[in-house]
Amino acid sequence: MRPQQLIETARALVADDKGLLAMDESVATEDKRFAELNIPQTDDARRAWRELIVTAPGLGEAISGAILFDETIRHSTKDGIPFVKVLIDAGIIPGIKVDAGLTDMAGHPGEKITSGLDGLRERLAEYSTLGARFAKWRAEIILGDGIPSRACIEANAQILALYAALCQEAGIVPIVEPEVLMEGDHSLERCREVTEEVLQTVFDKLYTQRVMLEGMILKPNMVLPGLTCPIQETVDEVADATVTTLLRVVPAAVPGVAFLSGGQSAELATARLNAMNARFKARLPWALTFSFARAIEEPAMEIWRGVDANTHAAQQRLVNRALCNRAARRGEYAASMEAKQG
Ligand code: 5MM
Questions:
Q1: How many domains does the chain have?
Q2: Share above pLDDT 70 across residues of the chain, in percent, rounded to a whole number
Q3: What mean pLDDT is reported for the chain?
Q4: Secondary structure (3-state) at 202
Q5: Is 325's C-beta closer than 6 angstroms to any atom of ligand 1?
């Protein structure tokens, strides 16, 4: 482990009110997003979309780090420049998603466990030579009748801690992502209870595994009512519930909390992050930032739709969304900052 290097990378990822861009969709997830917009689900289309992202002028003004997928960290622009070099030249730190996806948890119908620990030490060594300085691993916690079970929470937390320790051994900052899903009709209070238990368990396992908290980033869900819950709390109520929960369970040594957007609309995710920073920033021990995929990419993909002629407009919207989130880190976001198309 190289503690100073880990600390410096983690601090750089949350510096200057910038945040992370999660462009680490697996092939299946990216194809699903493309299919929704009638974009061809091909290797070429995925490479072109990611070239649009990494070459977007001004992206480095708002984005400190980009999480890549295995195929993307090996990709180059059509002019032959590796994406990793394009990012570094733009002042963006390359990162890599290293989990191998979700599988059904044996003995626990309806629950998931994340795979990918086998061979991870060797993969991390290779990703490091390819330029990755941080990594990401996502666990999924589903809310439903009788779930999540204690077994699911503990197993996923243990695996997250083993992953994080392996990353730090390789000099790579781990992003630890335990996601409590927003799908369902559960209340905000139910999400709060489960999020608190999950995070408390994750930090317990991280401690046992001797993960250096100063050299990691937490990537949690916001505390939200389920998507189909009839009661949808206000932006300020979500901000209060989320920050109150985090303050109970996230140690002050952690440099940053970078939220996922989880299927919220792009503008709502930003408004909620903005409310957290506007109301609490001065008294928080960690940076409250973003590690969004859909809440940055989706509006741009809707403009692009796989058509070359739309690339410039899509890049502008992508950077605009990233800048809106940077403003939210300062508590200075307003809906009027959104660049509307057409
Ligand atoms: C929860 O998903 C992560 C954050 O994205 P959103 O802001 O859209 O919620 C994201 O990094 C996710 O892990 C990737 O999109 C990869 O997902 P898959 O399922 O393809 O590994």
A1: 1
A2: 99
A3: 98
A4: helix
A5: no
Q: How far is Cα 193 from Cα 184, in angstroms, rounded to an integer? A: 15
In a domain, 148, yes or no: yes
Structural domain that includes position 127: 3-331
Instruction: Answer yes or no: is the C-beta of 140 below 6 A from any ligand 1 atom.
Output: no
Query: Does residue 336 fall inside a structural domain?
Result: no
Digit-coded pLDDT (tens) for 29-75: 999 999 999 999 999 999 999 999 999 999 999 999 999 999 999 99
Tell me if 264 is assigned to some domain.
Answer: yes
Alpha helices in the chain (DSSP H): 3-13, 27-36, 43-54, 70-73, 83-89, 120-130, 150-169, 188-208, 235-249, 266-280, 294-304, 311-329
- Side chain identity at 57, as an amino acid letter? P
CA distance 330 to 281: 8
Q: Which atom of ligand 1 is nearest to the CA of 22?
A: 11
Contact 94, 88 (CB under 8 A): yes
CATH code, domain carrying 326: 3.20.20.70
**Pocket of ligand 1 contains residue 244 by CB under 6 Å:** no
* Cα gap 118→125, rounded to integer Å: 14
Catalytic center residues: 177, 219
At residue 201, what is the residue type? Answer: T
181: helix, coil or strand? coil
Tokens of 125: 């060594």
* Cα–Cα distances in angstroms (integers) from residue 218 to residues 41, 250, 254, 270, 292, in the given order: 32, 9, 8, 18, 13
Q: Which of 170, 252, 183 is nearest to 6 (CA)?
A: 170
- Tell me which residue has its CA closest to atom 1 in ligand 1: 262
Indicate whether 2 pLDDT > 90: no
Residue 170: the pLDDT is 98
Distance (Å) of CA 59 to CA 65, 88, 273, 315, 322: 10, 12, 19, 9, 7
Q: Residue 136 is encoded by which pair of tokens?
A: 């990401």
Asked if residue 339 belongs to a domain, the reply is no
From residue 264, give the alpha-carbon distance in Å to each of 37, 269, 278.
Answer: 18, 6, 20
